[in-house]
Amino acid sequence: MNSSWQPSSPIKNLRTRAEILQKIRRFFLERNVLEVDTPSLSHAPVTDPHLVNFETQWASPSEVQEQALYLQTSPEYAMKRLLCAGSGCIYQLSKAFRNEEAGRYHNAEFTMLEWYRLGFDHWQLMDEVEALLKTILDCPDIKRVSYQALFIEHLALDPLTATLDTLKHVCNQLGFGNIAETESSSDTLLQLLFCEKIETQLDKNTPYFVYHFPASQAALAKLNAQDSRVANRFELYYQGIELANGFHELSDAKEQHQRFAKDNQLRADMGLNPAKIDQRFLDALHAGLPECAGVALGIDRLIMLAVGAKHIDEVIAFPTPIA
Amino acid sequence: MANFSTNEFKAGLKIMLDGEPCNILENEYVKPGKGQAFNRVKIRKLISGKVLEKTFKSGDTAEGADVMDLELSYLYNDGEFWHFMNNESFEQVAADEKAVGESIKWLRENDNCTITLWNGSPIAVTPPNFVELEITETDPGLKGDTAGTGGKPATLSTGAVVRVPLFVQTGEIIKVDTRSGEYVSRAQK
Predict the structure, then answer these.
(1) What single DSSP character describes residue B102?
(2) Which of A299, B71, B83, B184 could pair with B75 in a Cys bridge, judged by C-beta atoms 3.0 to 4.6 Å apart?
(3) Is the CB of B37 less than 8 angstroms away from the CB of A50?
(4) Are A73 and A289 in contact (CB under 8 A)?
(5) What one-character-per-residue DSSP string does A160-212 give?
(6) Are residues B56 and A179, on separate chains, in Cβ contact within 8 Å?
(7) Quick check: A106 and B29 CB within 8 A?
(8) Contact between residue A189 and residue A173 where contact means Cβ atoms under 8 Å apart
């Protein structure tokens, strides 16, 4: 009988978890990357229309009114503020919080490894991600393929030029008519096709870096200098799991502000309230973000791969439902 | 019927899909790190029995289906309808051949079956997991008669044909798993 006070993960997996965290720290110590510890609470939420922050109220003894604070969905903004302050290369192992997320590979509170390398571009960072992965898992060389090439290979579709109508047509043909019918965002259809028809077709025994996402899915990555239709963003997939998301970081404060505004426009289109923009983060960018590349990697999922777990509950001591 | 949102989709929930009532078997939450969340839902269509996967955008809704399961006992059939009765209320329900489907070969008087009703009409009949039926015809199956251990075919009182071990004879009552159509054992009588 499993009474709900017990951990959902076997102690054996928690030991493996500890070993992996040690290996990660050793990896960065050897490379002179500084470990930092930035807050989980922030005055600003994220503007990403697909992420929901946990919100809480701060009753500060030095303020009359309570202030809304948000649990961070990733340590990105705080770490970039450190980079702008001259921290040099940094990494962090911390909890990220995403409301409304729960499933086989999702827990509302999860562990993220995020690191930034000055002077690296996304290619060099991919090399380092590969090196880290190989110290933790016994995996083959990581195959590198572009987002565009995958769509052309699996769906005979060029994601960079396909119109909304073409995407709707393809979705209809593939049985996603219920979604395509009312969809006005090309990106949502591209994500649907990628998730359901490409990701599922990648060889489970090979890790993949998918690089050069469309500019509309750039997030915080620089646009590619040779082809502005794509962004210098890459993702790592292995055994059907999305493991990491990396960028050659956008350092232009004006463009970042524009992307935030665009996000808020999308939020309005989706019937969501606008999100307060993180002004301190923008101020830091104005002061100057050194040229760098950064990546965020899901540690719980990495541990799942290491122990062969089928569900994230097997590697987290107390997933949110029993926390 | 009320609409259900994807975060209410659980195994056992009945929804309408393409005009057909369906039972949700599994609901998997799928979300890329930067993007729209989807739900990959495994569904059994209740009329055709087909199992398929359908992807929904998280937050999308589906119409609920007015589907009910009743435990009724089998009375008889008149060739056109198979009649079932609620042993407590004595209410009767008549299911046509299409609704009875594969269960035809397992039905025995007084057996308790599950009748699935959609908007009040029977669309499926599920027999009990195990039934005990008499073998009305089978070869004696003498030792050495067949090469492998495949057993021999036996016809049961309902007309169903099942593979049985060689030592089982005509007139014997055997236990069959209705879900797989396979012989389980001789009946313990």
Answers:
(1) G
(2) B83
(3) yes
(4) no
(5) TT--HHHHHHHHHHTT-HHHHTT---HHHHHHHHIIIIIGGGS-TTS-EEEEE
(6) yes
(7) yes
(8) no
Q: Which of A48, A50, A192 sits opposite B55 (nearest CB)?
A: A192
Contacts with A138 (C-beta within 8 Å, 6 or more apart), sequence order: none
Pairing status of strand A90-97 against strand A34-35: parallel
CB atoms within 10 A of CB B3: 12
Find all residues with CB under 8 Å of A150, minimum gap 6, and list them: A194, A198, A210
A81-120 pLDDT, tens per residue? 999 999 999 999 999 999 988 899 999 999 999 999 999 9
Q: Is B43 found in the same domain as B91?
A: no
Q: For A279-308, what is each residue's pLDDT tens digit?
A: 999 999 999 999 999 999 999 999 999 999
Q: Which CATH architecture has domain A11-40+72-142+206-322?
A: 2-Layer Sandwich (3.30)
Check whether residue B33 and residue B73 sit in a common domain.
Answer: no
Residues of B in contact with A298 (CB under 8 A): 33
Going A80 to A86 to A89 to A92, the CA torsion angle's sign is negative
AA letter at B2? A
A41-57 pLDDT tens trace: 999 999 999 999 999 99
B40 has a chain A CB within 8 A of its CB? yes
Contact of B136 with B186, CB cutoff 8 Å: no
With beta carbons less than 8 A apart as the criterion, state whether A9 and A98 touch.
no
Give the tokens for residue A172.
């209809």
- Give the residue numbers spanning the domain of B24: 3-63
Question: How do residues B103-127 score in pLDDT, each as one tens digit?
Answer: 999 999 989 999 999 998 999 999 9
Query: What is the rounded end-to-end Cα distance, in angstroms, of chain B?
Result: 48
The structure tokens listed for A125 are 């960072």
Residue A174, min C-alpha distance to chain B (Å): 11
Domain endpoint, select from B126, B157, B174: B126
Residues B113 and B91 in one domain: yes
Residue in this structure with the two tokens 């979604």, named with its chain if needed:
A179
> What is the SS3 assignment for B143?
coil
Contact assessment for residue A245 and residue A235, using Cβ atoms and an 8 Å cutoff: yes
Dihedral through CA B71, CA B73, CA B77, CA B82, nearest 10?
0
Task: Provide the H-helix boundaries in B36-150.
Answer: 97-100
Q: What is the dihedral of CA A314, A316, A319, A322, to 10 degrees?
A: 80
Token reading at A246 = 């990396």
Closest CA to B36 of A197, A48, A208: A48
Q: Report the C-alpha gap between B169 and B155 in whole angstroms.
A: 11
ipTM of the complex: 0.81
